[in-house]
Amino acid sequence: MAPNSDTLTSLAAAVGGRLVGSGDIRIDDVTHDSRTAGPGVLFVAIRGARADGHDFVPAVVAAGSPAVVVDHHLDIATRQIVVPDTRAALGPLAAAVHGHPSLDMKLIGVTGTNGKTTVTHMIEGICRGVGLVPGLIGTIHTRVGGEVVPTVRTTPEASDLQRLLRHMVDEGAQVVAAEVSSHALAFGRVSGSLFSVAAFTNLSQDHLDFHETMAEYRAAKELLFSPDLSRRAVVNVDDPVGREIAAACRIPVMTVGRDGDLSARATRVDITGTEFILTARGVEVGVGRVPMAGGFNLSNAVVALGCMDAASVGLAGALAALEGIPPIPGRFEVVSDAGPTVVVDYAHSPDGIDQVVDTVRSTTSRRIVIVMGAGGDRDRGKRPAMGLAAARADRVIVTSDNPRSEHPGAIIDAVIERIPDGFDLQIEPDRRAAIRMALETAGDDDVVLILGRGHERFQEVAGDSIPFDDREVVHQEIAALRDTS
Predict the structure, then answer these.
(1) Contact 385, 350 (CB under 8 A)
(2) pTM, whole model, 2 decimals?
């Protein structure tokens, strides 16, 4: 609930809309979902891919909503705000009704192909370690303090996001770290928010089923670095696109990376984490440790530390708190080291797979076995490159990974397309059987990487969500192997 409801007249003025009917009624909430319409709730009719919100206006009026926002005047007896683009108006309207909650916190938005979840969890853990009340919005879960808040998207729709931010303010959140997806930016879901810090991790091929070209995908990411959305930026300049974003940035920018304002030099690396020396603008800050393996996670940590510095959280305290962050579900998560070391990771892009393989190669000379596939109804162009990246391991078992409406065999055929002849390749469409095969045939000195699904607890197959957590399946199959040995 908003701290102060707004009149329809003031809301129409806030979005430059034309008011039809009396404007003296007060609005307490905003929704784009007709199922949540009712007294005091302003309904915004959005044209979607499958449905047009304007078709639901009669039902919304019957449910008691006092007014609607539309892109043309409707012949129905209700108050209306007419705007050119209802989707563009949704965020600013919700922000106004909920008292512009992003101004009452330090809101940090993290975008990029890989690393968003890790960076936001690091920020949450660091904040808790230095005594701040954090909020987290993202892929795995959304929470404030110890409370988990249900959401259905990485970045909630604009009306849901503003309501969520107000709830977080009311619960005492001081710093909120939010994953900002390219879809969210393209659809304006963060419109109406003002980020204290916008962070960029990296850019590589993904989501081309939606954006169609890498140029469109990049352009969506770059929207976050507009002065209308963010006050300052933290950009990873080890990434070539990051260097270009930093150079063109129209807001104050802190660069992070080997040649950045903030940099880290690894001094000790193993499968459990990385010790490093942090340097800020040429001055050594201190020694820290990332409790997660890999150069990419050290890069993520420096982005997180840069966000803390940009948000005026002391670097020394943040560095000390970093070592104590809890494990991040499905992000280079070591789930077993009795026998072969088994790691579950969310890597589901060619670059993500490359990074995980590089991590293991940099920490051990042991043999690497990969279990992986590719998701159905998603970017089909990346599948052969994913298979080629996996073939940098010593053995690959290609299996299903959320095939959705596609036939698993067709996806597998695309994944293996560029894997060289003679490579140690196995095909097993049943994911449980593939994991069992990897565990049965891996030696005690091997590393088994189970990639693609990470924290996910359900497998999406032909319209059904089937319970399947890679981490649980690993433990079940290890126990079964012990029982038969």
Answers:
(1) yes
(2) 0.92
